[in-house]
Amino acid sequence: MITKDTLNFLEKLSNNNNKEWFIANKNIYENELKNVNIFFKSVYEKLQKIDNLENIKIFRIYKDVRFSKDKTPYKTNFGAAFIRKKPELRGGLYIHIENKKSFVGGGFWEPNAQDLFRIRKEFEIDASEIKSIINNKEFKKYFGTLQGDEVKTAPKGFNKLHPNIDLIRKKQFLISKSFDNEEVTSLNFADNVIDTFIKMYPFFNYMTEVLTTDLNGISILNKQ
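The structure assignment produced for this chain is given below.
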């Protein structure tokens, strides 16, 4: 489980985000990292029983600051992504552990140009199914609205007055659920994470069907 010690360490790191402090507290970091990694791997094992995952990616705490205005050297969170088996399955799942800012998320962070165009064309032709999913009462209870960056007006080749333009102009398709510190450190947090992921699957299943078929609904998997 995630402990209060882990969140306390991340809070202190946020307040002392410099190399000197981190080196002085590296033994504490390594202990917390070990514990969090055990948690991430336990979630992976549970999730693998209901999904088909290629691997788990546990993110490093060290930041790449070459192209960032924020030059603090360390992330103030622990994070892990669960990669679904492509090309049959699409969508990524993610856990973010941070003091007062933890969340479980999923979706399509950086779809390539081909996938993005295919999704937009689907929404242009018929968005009734995706609207049914994201307007579902339980979906909205867990995730609120569909999130993600979007273009300001309309992508090239699409009508800015199209009735589904709010979906068409998106560049990312993301959903997430926040958890407070008490929830994160509870004994059943891992089960709550799995339950949250399960609630994402209608969205994943729909998007997977879109991305594995052409506009006529014919599978493209045997062509890849």
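Interim note for the steering committee: Strands lie at 53-58, 78-84, 92-97, 102-108, 173-179. The radius of gyration is 19 Å.
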